[in-house]
Amino acid sequence: MSDGPGHDCALCPRLVEFRHAQRHLHGEWHNAPVVSFGPLDAKLLIVGLAPGLKGANRTGRPFTGDFAGDLLYGTLGKFGFAEGKYEARADDGLALVDCRVTNAVRCVPPENKPELAEIKACNGFLGREIAAMPRLKVVLALGAIAHAAVLAALERRKSQFKFVHGARHDLGRGMTLADSYHCSRYNTNTGVLTTEMFEAVFRAIQGDMRSR
After folding, report:
1. Cα gap 15→68, rounded to integer Å
2. Residue 6 lies in a domain
3. 110-138 pLDDT per residue, tens
4. Which residue, among 96, 1, 101, 13, has the nearest Cα to 55 in the 3D structure?
5. Separation of first and last alpha carbons in the chain
6. Number of structural domains the chain divides into
7. How much is the mean pLDDT over the chain?
């Protein structure tokens, strides 16, 4: 199954223009839509915002190459959702265990800020990906935009599921939506998200997965 847009997806003109500019500046980078990482039969799907310019847009793997990946993959390893050593590159041999990682928007946006139309344009890919995961039990949204994208992909009303860090929402059909602040450097540097807070989210997710 193709879980996302093709290498030269043209759905979002602004993102296409930015992507082409980066290809001109950094021809050795990935500079294309970033596909999901991890097995489709995973019970946990983690949804971020979009590829970082010098992270996934450079390396071609979600959350790889910037600070957010250090915290995310370190935490996944601690809780048994990853095997191997994370070395911030796509060929480091890291493998995810019962976990898959993706983004609400698959192409890098200028200033890390996708526009609403771009989020909507990519939403179909997320919806089809969720539908293709037969064992999915928990979707973890990293940030309010990812939270809203998951609800849109599942055709749930946003007003019924408010984004709150640490919250877990019953989506029916044996599926839970868990919320966390995004593991960005900004959020950790400002104290919005601490390592302890992030780990508490995964501890709760482990409990949810065991009980289902």
Report:
1. 22
2. no
3. 999 999 999 999 999 999 999 999 999 99
4. 101
5. 26
6. 1
7. 95
Looking at the predicted structure, is the pLDDT value of residue 24 above 60?
yes
Q: Is 174 within 8 Å of 136 (Cβ atoms)?
A: no
Identity of the amino acid at 167: A
Q: What is the pLDDT of residues 168-207, one digit of tens each?
A: 999 988 999 999 999 999 999 999 999 999 999 999 999 8
Q: Judge whether 5 lies within some domain.
A: no
Nearest Cα to 71, choosing from 202, 205, 207? 202
User: Residues 100, 46: contact at Cβ < 8 Å?
Assistant: yes
Token digits of residue 83: 């095997």
Tell me whether strands 175-180 and 168-172 are parallel, antiparallel or unpaired. antiparallel
Closest CA to 58 of 26, 36, 91, 12: 26
Is 1 a domain residue?
A: no
Residue 4 included in any domain = no
Find the domain containing 138 and state its range.
Answer: 13-211
pLDDT over threshold 50, residue 1: no
* Contact in structure between 189 and 87 (CB atoms under 8 Å): no
Helix/strand/coil percentages in the chain, nearest 5: 40, 15, 45
Query: What is the rounded CA–CA span in Å between residue 43 and residue 134?
Result: 8
Cβ neighbours, 10 Å, residue 154: 18
Domain CATH for 204: 3.40.470.10
Tell me phi and psi for residue 108, to 5 degrees: -65, 130
pLDDT of residue 211: 72
